[in-house]
Amino acid sequence: MAGAALGQGVIVDLSALDRIDSVNAAALTVRVQPGALCGAVDTAARRGGLRFPVDPSSARFCTVGGMAATNAAGTHTLRFGPIRAWVEALECVFANGSRSWIRRSEAPPDVPAIARFGAIASELRDAELRAPSRRSGLRKESSGYGLADWARSGSLVDLLVGSEGTLALFTSLELRLTPIPGATGTLLAAFPTIEAAAAAAAVAAELNASACELLDRTFLEIARLGGPLPVPDDADCVLLVEVEESSAARLAEVAAALATGFRDAGASHAEATLDPARAAQLWRVRHAASPVLAAMGRAAISMQIIEDGAVPPARLPEYVRGVRAALVRHDFPGVLFGHAGDGHLHVNVLVDPASDGWRQRVESLFGDVVVLTASLGGTLSGEHGDGRLRAGALSRLWPAASVARMLAVKQAFDPDGVLNPGVKFPSPGAPALGGPVKYDPNLSPLPDAARRVLDRVQRERIWDRPRLTLLAEESDG
Questions:
Q1: Could you give the CA distance from residue 124 to residue 130 in angstroms, rounded to a whole number?
Q2: Is 16 among the domain residues?
Q3: Do 85 and 144 lie in a common domain?
Q4: Is residue 429 part of a domain?
């Protein structure tokens, strides 16, 4: 999403490493390779009565290696948190080619990268414990390195998860699993203001909801172009909430309490259901805008330029209003949605790359949102990482002391800078937004076969197919 898996030089494609080993039901773990798809891992776990609870909306086609690289989260983060806590061990290839498992339950192995890090670890940890690299009140963070988590746990797993390929490559992972809940229910509610929705999201968090998703009016307007929605036409925003409990009786109690709390918060409409079929219908609203956006063509391309900001949940209304105003100020339509319970918002900016000055306006929009996010104590990345896109803004969101400690970590693990240069920390002279934007009509065209493959992926929405496999099919054809 933020350009963390591409750049100049050697590109390492791990999509073919997709093995999923047998689930260890006693230990509640499973060992997988990095190219395994999240949805496939969850399916394997469910065959044994378990599940993998970290579920991005892209679970059908995102890889667990990529998820660990960015500390990915998802719909159920409100209850289960991001992937960092669900990684038990990582098999890593370090910058000099050495390969070793890093486990939570064992002392770090004797490899050069870890030895270099060990030489500065005590000083780093003392500094982190005094002034943690963590923003107060923020529930999700995928920017920088997980220094605060590492300092608290002492486990290198917490530091490596979220490092975006800049400290090591992951060639295998051991993931924790959790039992399947006894009963689930869904509540859809509409609100006249974002403030009312934020108050209701706080109620959902207090009642230990597993998910609480926000669909802004900009999202609803686009989604309605694809057909009617089970939402009042005058709604400013919608919350979709999921509740998990051990029994149907307990679930009914919590669902009723949620509906009451939402109406007290100002909901103009609320529908609760314990029926799985109806719940699936309601959750389809969460994805209703995607087909419409995909059909708009190149005159309104959805660019993920400011797509991952998170703020303390209480400040979400200010963030939504600020982003809406910035879009208007720079003359861009946009679609807003995200994880209300976590104060986390995704924004799809709709850009016509044939229009005059679009690149400058996009850069100005990005700059305004950086200022807004910093003023609210937020992060530019709740779950997708810094990549190249946000690398240049790292020093504007983190204190200088935290950035210095992160650079020291990078130097210890990768002194020659061969692992994903330009990611997290900008390369010298890197342009704004980290480099070229793939939709820029002034870029050199891709080879015809590659262009056809990528157009096919977009047209057929086959995001779960490895691109090199599709390219081989194209060549054979």
A1: 10
A2: no
A3: yes
A4: yes
Residue identified by tokens 């667990």 is: 64
pLDDT tier at 477, thresholds 50, 70, 90: low
In a domain, 169, yes or no: yes
456 within some domain: no
Q: Are residues 39 and 122 in the same domain?
A: yes
**Residue 137 shares a structural domain with residue 161:** yes
Reported as a single tens digit per residue, the pLDDT across 62-116 is 999 999 999 999 889 999 999 999 999 999 999 999 999 999 988 888 899 999 9
Least confident piece of the model among 168-172, 336-340, 370-374: 336-340
Residues 251 and 373 in one domain: no
Q: Residue 425: which CATH number?
A: 3.30.70.2740
Buried b (16+ CB within 10 A) or exposed e, 46-77: eeeebbbbbbbebbebbbbbbbbbbbbbbbbb
CATH number of the domain residue 162 falls in: 3.30.465.10
Looking at the structure, tell me whether residues 34 and 169 fall in a common domain.
yes
pLDDT of residue 108: 86
Instruction: Tell me how far apart the alpha carbons of residues 327 and 77 are, in angstroms, rounded to a whole number.
Output: 28
Q: Residue 44's pLDDT band (boundaries 50, 70, 90)?
A: very high
Kindly tell me the burial class for residue 455, based on how many C-beta atoms sit within 10 Å of its own C-beta (0-12, 13-18, 19 or more): exposed
**154 and 220 both lie in a single domain:** no
Could you say which of 291, 326, 343 is where a domain stops? 291
Note down the domain range covering 342. 300-434
**Tokens encoding 114:** 């870890």
147 to 78, 81, 116, 154: CA distances (angstroms): 22, 17, 16, 10
Residues 391 and 268 in one domain: no
Domain count along the chain: 3
Question: Among 90-94, 218-222, 289-293, which is the least confidently predicted range?
Answer: 289-293
